[in-house]
């Protein structure tokens, strides 16, 4: 799990970030409504515990809100072989104490991030960022949130690397510098102009990385979040 070429994020500067504990694994995720977390479908490897409001996930920070998951909604057409439709919504459970209702308590440390409003493609070269918890390099892991900048890669060029690329995927990365997300940041958001446009999905060890393209799934998202 690593953000290659990244640096430590300003604590709580990305209050929509969620840390997902999945058994011995971890994933990223992000809060899209007070009781809904979005992540990658391939993160469903067991029961998930959601930690909101975290910077250092190994410290019991007072800002953290821990939630179980009431219901899992992986995309019905998610295919683990080709990693198509790699998107999932998690309905968050009531806080253990019974206070604050089912929803996350929104404050300076826990906020939602907006989703795209239309199905239009982001222009090639759009500047975006990714963030996650994990290895900084081969030997050093970090408990703190790291972030890095990437830019949107042209679909035409990305198909050369990933022939099965479809409209539910978007590519980002930088070939000049080694900056890309890898395994442990799966499920985290690709943020462009303060909107979550993608979900970290897959990528070989070198950029560009492939992200689930949220704009492609707006109708499905709306349907699920009415539940």
TrEMBL record:
Gene3D superfamilies: Trypsin-like serine proteases
InterPro entries named in the record: Peptidase_S1_PA, Peptidase_S1_PA_chymotrypsin, Peptidase_S1A, Trypsin_dom, TRYPSIN_HIS, TRYPSIN_SER
Keyword Protease tagged: yes
GO MF entries: serine-type endopeptidase activity
Residues annotated as domain Peptidase S1: 3-226
Residues making up the signal peptide according to the UniProt record: none
Record carries keyword Protease: yes
PROSITE patterns: TRYPSIN_DOM (PS50240), TRYPSIN_HIS (PS00134), TRYPSIN_SER (PS00135)
UniProt-listed SMART domains: Tryp_SPc
Pfam families documented for this protein: Trypsin (PF00089)
Species per Swiss-Prot/TrEMBL record: Baryphthengus martii
Keyword terms: Disulfide bond, Hydrolase, Protease, Serine protease
GO biological process, one term: proteolysis
Protein name per the record: MCT1A protease
């Amino acid at each position: 799990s690593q953000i290659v070429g990244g640096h430590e994020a300003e604590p709580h500067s990305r209050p929509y970030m969620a840390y997902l504990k999945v058994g011995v694994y971890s994933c990223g995720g992000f809060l899209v409504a007070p009781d809904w977390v979005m992540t990658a479908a391939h993160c469903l490897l067991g029961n998930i515990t959601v930690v909101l409001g975290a910077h250092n996930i190994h410290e019991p920070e007072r800002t953290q809100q821990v939630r179980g998951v009431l219901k899992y909604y992986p995309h019905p057409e998610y295919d683990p072989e080709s990693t198509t439709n790699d998107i999932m919504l998690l309905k968050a459970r009531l806080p253990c104490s019974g206070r604050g209702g089912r929803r996350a308590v929104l404050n300076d440390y826990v906020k939602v991030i907006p989703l795209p409003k239309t199905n239009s493609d982001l222009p090639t070269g759009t500047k975006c960022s990714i963030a996650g918890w994990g290895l900084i390099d081969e030997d050093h892991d970090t408990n703190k949130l790291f972030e890095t900048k990437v830019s949107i890669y042209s679909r035409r060029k990305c198909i050369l690397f990933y022939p099965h690329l479809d409209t539910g995927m978007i590519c980002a990365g930088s070939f000049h510098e080694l900056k890309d997300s890898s395994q442990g940041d799966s499920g985290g958001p690709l943020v462009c102009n303060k909107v979550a446009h993608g979900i970290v999905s897959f990528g070989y060890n070198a950029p560009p990385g492939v992200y689930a393209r949220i704009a492609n799934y707006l109708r499905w998202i709306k349907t699920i979040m009415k539940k």
